[in-house]
Design a protein that fits this description.
Helix content: 40-55%
Shape: globular
Number of helices: 11
Radius of gyration: 18 Å
Largest sheet: 8 strands, parallel, barrel
Strand order of the largest sheet: 1-2-3-4-5-6-7-8
Order of helices and strands: EHHEHHEHEHEHEHEHEHH
Structural class: alpha/beta
């Protein structure tokens, strides 16, 4: 397999689905929005370039899993991660959720085995980093015990006024928590202001890989920032779906997602 494969983030939940559908140009109601977003995901997954030569895995929301998306991806040779968090509280930390119940379902009831899980917290300041990582790494131990690989995602907003300072502190605390963490994990991080800030994490023994989120950057900007860093890959959502519209013909849709996939892959 190519070293340039990346993870497709397709885990829009109740909070992010409306804005995603609005960018896609699909009319929806509260009752049918998950039908509409599933239709969009199916178009993406069935595009010719959405294959195991370019995509190593996809992150899915539970609704997509119950609709059989794991089976579709498994047949294409693409692994799956399950989004397991319920969003963030006001301070950015993960809301409490029944993690063991979710993991029991994920490991016993889906069919094809999923590879891992994903959970995200928004890091709004230096003071939040330690409690956010403590929560995520505590959950990661439970996830690892279930035989799954957790994606740990402490996201620094791309427009944070002291983004570089927060990222320096995040790097320090990530190393501290990884020293004590007994399992494997994937780190999903915002592209840093200083290229290769997270390079040491890419060669840490218990980090399977480091991937960057697109975080609202355009596809071009996200890929430019990705390309400045060695040893990292991508896990893009908005940058992957940029320029996709409900009204496009199959040819137009497939051409656009193919261009996005090639740009991302070439930047990894």
């Amino acid at each position: 397999m190519s070293d340039h494969r990346f993870i497709a983030a397709m885990d829009h939940s109740g909070g992010s689905t409306p804005s995603t559908l609005e960018r896609y140009g699909a009319e929806y109601t509260e009752d049918n929005m998950f039908d509409k977003i599933h239709d969009m995901r199916l178009r993406m997954v069935h595009s010719p370039e959405f294959n195991d030569k370019n995509i190593s895995a996809a992150i899915l929301f539970r609704d997509s899993v119950t609709r059989g998306m794991v089976n579709i991806l498994d047949e294409k040779g693409i692994d799956t991660f399950l989004k397991i968090d319920n969003g963030c509280d006001e301070d950015g930390t993960l809301k409490q959720f029944p993690v063991k119940q979710i993991l029991e379902w994920a490991t016993n009831d889906i069919g094809p085995k999923i590879y891992g899980t994903k959970m995200r917290s928004i890091v709004k300041g230096v003071g939040m980093i330690h409690p956010v990582l403590k929560q995520q790494f505590t959950l990661a131990r439970t996830i690892w015990d279930y035989g799954l690989v957790p994606i740990i995602e402490p996201e620094v907003p791309i427009d944070h006024p002291i983004k570089g300072e927060v990222e320096d502190a995040l790097m320090y605390y990530l190393q501290e928590f990884l020293d004590e963490y007994p399992g494997k994990c994937i780190l999903k991080l915002t592209p840093p202001e200083v290229p290769n800030l997270y390079h040491n994490l890419t060669v840490t023994h218990n980090v399977e890989r480091v991937v960057f989120l697109s975080g609202g950057y355009s596809t071009e900007e996200a890929c430019n920032r990705l390309g400045l860093n060695e040893g990292v890959s991508a896990s893009f959502s908005r940058a992957l779906s940029e320029g996709l519209y409900a009204h496009q013909t199959a040819e137009e849709f497939n051409k656009r997602i193919s261009d996005n996939i090639k740009l991302i892959s070439n930047s990894c």
